Amino acid sequence: MKKLKIYLDMCVYNRPFDDQLQYRINTETQVFIILLSMILKGELNLVNSFALRYENSKNPKIENMLRISDVMEYSTEYISYDKWILERSIELEKYGLTGMDAIHIACAEKAKADFFITCDDGLFKKLERVDKIGIVYYNIIDFISKEVFKI
């Protein structure tokens, strides 16, 4: 069976550092931990990118940044900046995706990731309005339910 290749949006990496007293955030954090466990066991392949590293480097909380960097080290693939990503992100911006969101989607497409996973409702709504995305996208809860647990 082919291992799934996933690209996690930066908000997913940051979820464990958000307010865990909120049920949704806590649930998304638990799902992230399950995904991390699967990555560590070699059951999922994780894609990293220049965009994720850049965004993480801007994290004002140094300890959080370092922990996220540690998680990113378990990636099996790294996507570097190139002309295709620039051109693709500009094209995606025409459909309403902006800045880093467009770049992350372009990176996930370039990696031929099976799934782009986010917990950003605003981004998810924008993705739903775009016809020409070359990747399947999920919010983190739906991903674990539909693709991992097959519920």
TrEMBL record:
It comes from the Bacteria. PROSITE patterns: HTH_CROC1. Transmembrane segments: none annotated. InterPro entries: Cro/C1-type_HTH, PIN-like_dom_sf, PIN_dom. SUPFAM superfamilies: PIN domain-like. Residues 53-79 form the HTH cro/C1-type domain. This is HTH cro/C1-type domain-containing protein. The lineage of its organism: Bacteria, Pseudomonadati, Thermodesulfobacteriota, Desulfobacteria, Desulfobacterales.
